[in-house]
Amino acid sequence: MRGIAYWLSAVVVLTGVVVCMAPASGHADGQAAPIFGVTIPPGYRDWRLISVAHEAGDLNDFRAILGNDVAIRAYREEKLPFPDGTIIVRLAWSYIASEENNKVFGRAQSFVAGAPINVQLMVKDSRRYAATGGWGFAQFKDGKPADEAVHKTCSPCHESAKARDFVFTHYSP
């Protein structure tokens, strides 16, 4: 009987720890993006890196593009179209000068990630998203989905990459 009580106590404590850590880990509260119903997948920050980019101009950000195992396998095998189950995540940050690094270099040349801008997702499901080339899209800021007007721009923007199954990012092994 004592063993069962110990076991139940351990489960309750562990559950409490997991619940308390969830918001701090950058996961959204499960809200789905309008139009496509895409949510932020748990554990996405542990996915593999596909590529990085710096966008200048109006966007002016640093970004990391991550993929789930299905996406990484398709990229490595150069498989187009991407198979159903592929999820590609783009994380974007503003960037700021690194005073600490620039002191070492003796001039202003180093920049690091600043405030987060947003998280964007592409989810491949050829049946569910047939009208948009098989892809569902989502954009979140601070864990909250952008409004419907923003999501209406996703598919038309990706149309220019139709020859690459609507995906802009090339794999950088």
Can you walk through the features of this model?
Residues 3-28 have low confidence and may be disordered. The protein has one domain (27-164): Chalcone isomerase (3-Layer(bba) Sandwich), CATH 3.50.70. The longest helix has 23 residues, at 2-24. It is α+β, with helices and mostly antiparallel strands. The protein has helices at 2-24, 69-76, 99-105, 148-151, 154-158; strands at 48-55, 61-67, 87-97, 111-124, 135-141, 144-145. 22% of the residues are buried.
Characterize the biggest β-sheet. Answer: 6 strands, antiparallel
> Rg to the nearest angstrom?
20 Å
* Annotated CATH architecture: 3-Layer(bba) Sandwich
State the order of secondary-structure elements, H for helix, E for strand. HEEHEHEEEHH
Q: Give the total of beta strands.
A: 6
The shape is globular
What is the highest CATH level, the class?
Alpha Beta
Would you tell me the structural class of the helices and strands? alpha+beta
Strand % is: 25-35%
Number of helices: 5
Helix content: 25-40%
Specify the CATH homologous superfamily: Cytochrome P460
The span between the termini is 54 Å
Number of domains: 1
What are the segments in which pLDDT stays under 50 over at least 5 consecutive residues?
3-28
CATH topology: Chalcone isomerase
Overall residue-averaged pLDDT value: 86
Side-by-side strand order of the widest sheet = 1-2-3-4-5-6
